[in-house]
Input
Amino acid sequence: MQQRDRHYRKSGLGAIGRSGVTLIELVVVATVVLGMILALTPFVKMVRARAQKIRCADRLRQISIGLHRYAADHEGVFPPNLGVLYPDYIEDEKAFDCPAAKGIGTKDQPDYKYTAGLTTQSSPKEVMAQDLEGSHKKLGKNILRSNGSIEWLGSQR
Output
């Protein structure tokens, strides 16, 4: 114990040792943390955009199932608008809301552009529904084909 006390006295630290943090150390740590946050921000934005794109495609899939169920009950004719599907063919009104769109889509004003007048006999590549322009910040849009397939159409930059 006496040797330790001598060491502290020789180094000028006193009997209890050095305590506290200097201002320079705080600035260095804050700079490193800020740098890490700035470096991760683009990655977080990219992941968020991808998650919105996937949730949007899932909601279009729900709409597709509802459209095809409706057509099965109505001699192969799809409904005149998407709102007709709620609540008999689509149980959750959130299906009409694209997570990437600015507003909240409803059965009366969905976040998807719908092509009325199609039947189950229409061309399989016919576009039934798609994201409204700008929903995914000019990155592209999800498209629902009449055969039930959903694809991402990237923007032409």
